[in-house]
Amino acid sequence: MTRADVNDIRAYLRTLEPVRSVPTENKFPWPLDHRLSMIGWNGLFFEPGEFKPDPKQSAEWSRGAYLVEGLGHCGACHSPKNILGATKTSEAYQGSEIQNWFAPNLTGNRRSGLGSWSAEDIVAFLKTGHNARTTAYGPMGEVVRESTSKMTDQDLKAIATFLKALPASTSDTPDAPDRNVMATGGAIYRDVCSACHQLGGEGVKGIFPSLRGDAVVQSDQPLTLLRIILNGGRAASPSNHPSSLTMPSFDWKLSDDQVAALATYVRNEWGNRAGPVSASDVSDLRGKIQSVTSDY
Ligand code: HEC
Ligand code: HEC
């Protein structure tokens, strides 16, 4: 961060009312319970210094880089981590698991990333939690509500410029899934999903998102897709764009095998392509997330 921004934050914090608080007892396992171990970690992964704009890039790109890599902390969720919890710089922004969600690929990959998004799509999503393609869910809802919805349009455009310039990650095209699984999944889809998302997966503009070409559906890891099927969709509803649209939950209705076949189907129908989902992926996730009863 720039020195001026750090000073401004300090000045703001000084205006807050002091509170008395007792720090929570440290329950980390060895060696994480030793603050000194941070010295080693910093030696390996921390680069001291202030952000310097890249003279080869536009001022708008540099502003975007400053926000995304610095205060926006987007890589904290969207970049894969190594075993010590540091970002794998060679795979930055290519998507990562977080709190049993999958924060998708933000590079120009057309299937699982933002390759088919315009800069305007990104700005609308970060400003309101919605755009013509998708909605912000789970931890991203919080990011939009508490952070990006409060940014200026100029800063959001700068973020979009930086993200659109990220080179597309390369990913292998998974093999076509088992035909029987596709047939089973397709039958479930027609039965329980198609009334809203339509038989061709195209959704209804402004109401039901398209599942065709959708990055949430085709992410490397299917966590977000499975959570939405099990728990339903609860859109972020920032005060500048309140929303009452929700998707019902299906965890009470569909077995692990059924959810796996259905997820495999939507990941591979209508020109979509992504790895198959197994029943154990579904049961693992069910064990980790709270089930919600639906009034659907
Ligand atoms: C606390 C974790 C977290 C942080 C921090 C975070 N994200 Fe996300 N993001 C997620 C998760 C989880 C999703 C998947 C759920 C969804 O689609 O809304 C997501 C989804 C997205 C999407 C939608 C992608 C798609 O293909 O549907 C975009 C764009 C995005 N994030 C951009 C950003 C930007 C830019 C920042 C930094 C300003 C950021 N995120 C910071 C967790 C995070
Ligand atoms: C009653 C209508 C309805 C039904 C039935 C329904 N959905 Fe949804 N779905 C929605 C709505 C509305 C959203 C957007 C949620 C939001 O904005 O909070 C959504 C969002 C989604 C998303 C996230 C897409 C994105 O990128 O934002 C996926 C994936 C999805 N649904 C899959 C399914 C599947 C699979 C089924 C069948 C089990 C299904 N839906 C059944 C209404 C429905």
Automatic annotation (TrEMBL):
Q: Where is the Cytochrome c domain?
A: 59-167, 180-270
Keywords attached to this entry: Cell membrane, Electron transport, Heme, Iron, Membrane, Metal-binding, Repeat, Respiratory chain, Signal, Transport
Q: Which PROSITE patterns match?
A: CYTC
Q: What is its main location?
A: membrane
Q: Which cofactor does it need?
A: heme c
* Location relative to the cell: Cell membrane
Extract the PANTHER family matched here.
ALCOHOL DEHYDROGENASE CYTOCHROME C SUBUNIT (PTHR35008:SF8), BLL4482 PROTEIN-RELATED (PTHR35008)
Record protein name field: C-type cytochrome
Which lineage is the organism of this entry classified under, starting from the top rank?
A: Bacteria, Pseudomonadati, Pseudomonadota, Alphaproteobacteria, Hyphomicrobiales
